[in-house]
């Protein structure tokens, strides 16, 4: 059964940036888009299991720091090689200045 997890404060993430969030042995990446929306994906690249929180956010994309593969963080879609397996994306919501993810 899915549940909402309090992941971080909205102020913890700058616009067009990403942070790492670990919960119950899993790693997530939480993003703040240029239009001030929040998104969440698995936190490890599907290619070499590198932490995406160390990557570069450009508009609605995250570039993996190891081999420069790119994902659309809104959907998790792999959009530039060498990544070819999509990330899992999670629903987010904001309440009282906190970002929640549904896991």
From TrEMBL:
<dbReference type="Pfam" id="PF00355">
    <property type="entry name" value="Rieske"/>
</dbReference>
<dbReference type="InterPro" id="IPR036922">
    <property type="entry name" value="Rieske_2Fe-2S_sf"/>
</dbReference>
<keyword id="KW-0408">Iron</keyword>
<dbReference type="InterPro" id="IPR012747">
    <property type="entry name" value="MocE_2FeS"/>
</dbReference>
<keyword id="KW-0479">Metal-binding</keyword>
<dbReference type="GO" id="GO:0046872">
    <property type="term" value="F:metal ion binding"/>
</dbReference>
<keyword id="KW-0411">Iron-sulfur</keyword>
<keyword id="KW-0001">2Fe-2S</keyword>
<protein>
    <submittedName>
        <fullName>Putative Rieske-like ferredoxin MocE</fullName>
    </submittedName>
</protein>
<comment type="similarity">
    <text>Belongs to the bacterial ring-hydroxylating dioxygenase ferredoxin component family.</text>
</comment>
<dbReference type="GO" id="GO:0051537">
    <property type="term" value="F:2 iron, 2 sulfur cluster binding"/>
</dbReference>
<feature type="domain" description="Rieske">
    <location>
        <begin position="5"/>
        <end position="101"/>
    </location>
</feature>
<dbReference type="InterPro" id="IPR017941">
    <property type="entry name" value="Rieske_2Fe-2S"/>
</dbReference>
């Amino acid at each position: 059964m899915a549940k909402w997890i309090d992941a971080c404060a909205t102020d913890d993430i700058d616009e067009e940036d990403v942070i790492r969030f670990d919960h119950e042995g899993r790693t997530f990446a939480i993003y703040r888009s240029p239009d001030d929306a929040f998104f969440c994906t698995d936190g490890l690249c599907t290619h070499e299991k590198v932490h995406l929180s160390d990557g570069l956010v450009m508009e609605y994309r995250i570039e993996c720091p190891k081999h420069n593969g790119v994902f659309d963080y809104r959907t998790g879609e792999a959009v530039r090689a060498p990544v070819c397996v999509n990330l899992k994306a999670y629903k987010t919501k904001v309440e009282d200045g906190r970002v929640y993810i549904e896991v």
